[in-house]
Amino acid sequence: MKHWMAWTLLLLAALTGTAARAASGAGHQAQAVKVTTLSTMLADYEGLGEWGYAALVEVDGRRILFDTGANPDVVLKNAEALHIDLSTVEDVVISHFHDDHTGGLITLRKALMQKNPGALSHLYVGEGIFEPRYHKDGKGESENGFPALAKAYLDTGGRIQQLSGPAEIASGVWLTGPVPRGHAETNWNPGLFIKTGGQLVPDTLREDTSLVIDTAQGVVIVTGCGHAGIMNIADDAKAITGDTRLHAVIGGIHLFGKPDTVLVETAGRLKGLAYLFAAHCTGIEATVRLRQLLGLDRRTAVVAAIGSSFTLGKGIEAGAIAGWVG
Known about the structure:
Helices cover 24% and strands 23% of the residues. The chain is α/β, with parallel strands linked by helices. The strands form 3 sheets. It has an 8-stranded mixed sheet with strand order 6-5-4-3-2-1-16-17. Strands 7-8-11-12-13-14-15 form a 7-stranded mixed sheet, covered by helices on one side. A two-stranded antiparallel sheet has the order 9-10. The protein is globular and about 50 Å long.
């Protein structure tokens, strides 16, 4: 296993964060942005819900799949039901190792490459995603299934880039890589540990990676679970783009079990946010409370459903289940 891991890591094209934080913000700003939900818990008759997340991100003609859901075929079926052709998507991002974000990767890659060999052929992950995870006693096999998944992906001819810092993967489109954690957020479930210096320490999912889009209206953030903490992610997005304005936060931000004091602090740090398009582990009650605290409404702070979308300049198209009708 150790020999295979070394072999795998040698194959990774590591991006070392040559694109520094605290960028000047003078780079290209995205003009056309659309993010469509392909996996989350809320669904109507057109799709299948699950405890997981995936979204199609389209920026100025560039198409990126962000996470791949939990069950092997859900994202594939949902895309077909929504008449979305994923075969032209060559870039895929896995935000962290949890299987509710990685489960569809191999099924999608194998199905789509029959139409386009380049489909989902370029995978981005954050540094730390290959680390073994253990229960408290440190015994037994690692609970991290991503190394085996990565091997299966490499066997299809795909390539993996491991990010140690922020990287601009398209004009105005950034991946954070591991996020600096200035705020003491604990937006993950306890119970797993990693070995550091021979000692077991809590697994804080240091690889947790978000997507950041620089726009004229402000920063758009797409996150899978927000295990790094949405306050930390927002600070990092501002540092990367040089823009302190938050326009939209999209995806899961793992607040469903948090007390109101945390929601109040979070809203204070997200002050000025124009759109909250909350999915997956954000939580319905937490979304409604954040809507109130942020001064948003049923059109601008929405629980995402499969097929719902955010479009820059237009806002959220939520659908009948999640949206405001009338």
